[in-house]
Design brief:
By secondary structure, the chain is mainly α. It is about 75% helix and about 0% strand. The chain is built from 5 helices and no strands. Helix 3 packs antiparallel against helix 5. The longest helix is centred in the middle third of the chain and has 30 residues. It starts with 7 loop residues before the first helix and ends with a helix.
Length: about 130
Amino acid sequence: MNWSMWSIDRILILFVSLAFLMIGLQVTMFHYRQNFIHKAMWVPVISAPIFLIAGLILTWYNAPWLHTLFMALMWFGVVSGLIGFYFHFRGVGIRVGGWALRNFLIGPPIILPLMFSALSVLGLIAIYWKAW
């Protein structure tokens, strides 16, 4: 069940896992700064370390059930990032002045949830790589 070499899909899974460590730290700092005023703020804070651990284990132990788990987690990451984008975009709009440029600069970062989704898509590309 071990990997036979460092193939591109294995390298991508490792990269995605480590990237979730970084993005998870950033998201945690941003949401902590806002005192987790909305329960949905906990989703990326809790899921990013889970993505990291699952990906690291999959990098070293190539088991079919780990592929399935990682794939499901990445799909969850795509969806939760898109929902986060909605909340962030709405959060900019409810600030005084609405969707003015200054509110995009100082309000919730609308690109960060999309990066969460994009990173999850990269994880899905790594998982589906062999199927193509």
